[in-house]
């Protein structure tokens, strides 16, 4: 059973802020890409930003549903300048790897506290992170292969969809998904 003062609850509260920070970082990458006339890359990151926002709101809804205090904490300013697409995409990949570690820690905390509902809640996010890391890793590879011909990244993104393979039912989103 999740308690208000458990390690899982504390980590989940922090993760809400981490997800909002990821959302803001993806907006910053999207704005940078837009300023570089990379509309496909910008669109991909605007969309990813909404996904991260929705992840935060799923966590908020879970806390509300469990009768826990959902606190929205301050987040750091995102990085907005990049040396090129590879630089921006490597930052996004490292961010996804970090989020994966955070989600794994949440799952482990729920397990250590004998909280099967917390474990079950985190399983969807674990599946999602496998996909997110793989997708970012692919984008980094594409950008590295493109070198100074950034339009090749645009061509790849125009051809390839960003469809999710996480077929599990996502958690409810507080206020509704956007």
TrEMBL record:
Keyword annotations of the record: Iron, Iron storage, Metal-binding, Oxidoreductase
Domain called Ferritin-like diiron: residue spans: 2-147
Signal peptide stretch: none
InterPro entries xrefs: Ferritin, Ferritin-like, Ferritin-like_diiron, Ferritin-like_SF, Ferritin_DPS_dom, Ferritin_prok
Stretch list, region Disordered: 159-178
The keyword Oxidoreductase is assigned to this record: yes
Gene3D superfamilies attached to this UniProt entry: 1.20.1260.10
Protein name listed in UniProt: Ferritin
Origin species: Dietzia aerolata
Organism lineage: Bacteria, Bacillati, Actinomycetota, Actinomycetes, Mycobacteriales
């Amino acid at each position: 059973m999740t308690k208000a003062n458990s390690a899982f609850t504390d980590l989940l509260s922090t993760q809400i802020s981490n997800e909002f920070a990821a959302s803001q970082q993806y907006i910053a990458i999207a704005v940078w890409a837009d300023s570089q006339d990379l509309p496909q890359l910008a669109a991909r990151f605007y969309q990813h930003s909404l996904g991260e926002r929705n992840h935060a709101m799923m966590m908020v809804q879970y806390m509300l549903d469990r009768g826990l205090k959902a606190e929205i904490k301050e987040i750091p300013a995102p990085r907005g300048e990049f040396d090129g697409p590879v630089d921006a995409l490597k930052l996004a990949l490292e961010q996804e790897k970090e989020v994966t570690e955070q989600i794994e820690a949440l799952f482990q905390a729920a397990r250590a506290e004998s909280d099967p509902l917390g474990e079950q809640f985190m399983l969807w996010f674990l599946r999602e992170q496998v996909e997110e890391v793989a997708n970012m890793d692919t984008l980094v590879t594409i950008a590295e292969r493109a070198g100074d011909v950034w339009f090749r990244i645009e061509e790849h993104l125009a051809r390839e969809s960003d469809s999710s393979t996480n077929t599990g039912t996502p958690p409810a989103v507080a206020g509704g998904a956007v």
